[in-house]
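We recall that each integer encodes one residue's backbone shape. We quote one record:
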Amino acid sequence: MAHGDADRTLDYPIPAPAALEPPPEWAELRQGSPVARVRLPSGDEASLLTRYADVKQVLTDPRFRRHLDAPDAARVSADESGGVFAGALAGALPEETHQQWRRMVGKWFTAKRMTALRPGVEATAERLVDGMIAGGAPADLREHLGFPLPVWVVCDMLGVPESDRDRFSYWSDTLLSLTRYTQAEIEAAQAEFRAYMSEHIAATRKNPGADLISELISAASGAGHVMPDEALLATALGLLVAGHETTANMIGKMVGMLLADRRRWERLLADRSLVRTAVEEALRADANGGFGIPRYITEDTEVGGTVIPRGTTVVCNLSAANRDEGVFADADGMDLGRTPNTHLAFGAGSHACLGQSLARTELQAVLEVLLRKLPGLELAVPAEELERVDGLVVGGLRTLPVRW
């Protein structure tokens, strides 16, 4: 970054030149300004971290607060609730209960259970791909596969009947918006979701099944506690928001990246054993991971050779950290066989993404099904013309037009 730029405040998020490309500023910031001043959509200022080591240091430090509820914490968006990070998800549970809850939910997301879930995920992906094929090419892979598959999986885990799954898609989209929906629409969606889930939780208490809500109720009562409705609501909301939109977007971005340079797709067709590492590399190379993870610094701390004063809100940009040349050789390229691949796409530390094994299961299943059923798959528009979705906390593609 040129001398004299150190004092400028960048608007954040930083726009990218194309949907699958990173903003060039990331590399400049990692080199010259690893702790950079940025202005958030709310107008508040924060510090942006773009280097791998710095992002990992802040995310794994238990002193820094996840909840942006301190009076001097930066607000993400301009509405009074501070955006999704300060909303229903963040404040539902005190930290101690949160860790206890994470352990219980974490038991649900075991590799064993995910392996058991996989045939169902593959069968659903096959059904959705068949529907897309029946409609003819070109088709929007996001609409036919990326968006519906994770809703099906989350609803299945919550025990929600098939007939109600479309409403879940809308609620998920609305709850994650930074700018696309009005505050009134967001509040209405939250209220509808809460009303629906409260009824669903009451029904599940009377008549438990094999779903996650039933499991949490029974695990709590086994330990002599009653799992409060509020915690179960937060679980459902967390699963929907974290598990639907992020995975739906990642399916589109992963397939988009693999088809943007068709040699990648050909390599996978020639060697299916690369599916697992290709999924990890798509997660690492994703240049459009969304807003990043905010943290509130509770005491003066040295990060990347800079002292960050207490009371600062920092934004950890995972996508920028995943392209740190000091950690990943040819960081801007895609190596489908890259091992090890210690990317931070799911965060790090005690608050790393709980559903990462589920996301991996879905992404691997989608890739297996597409390679098997549509070996001739290709983009129906040039990669440069793909459009990204703006105004959501997690980044994605507006559509993914494909033909086969």
About this structure: The radius of gyration is 21 Å.
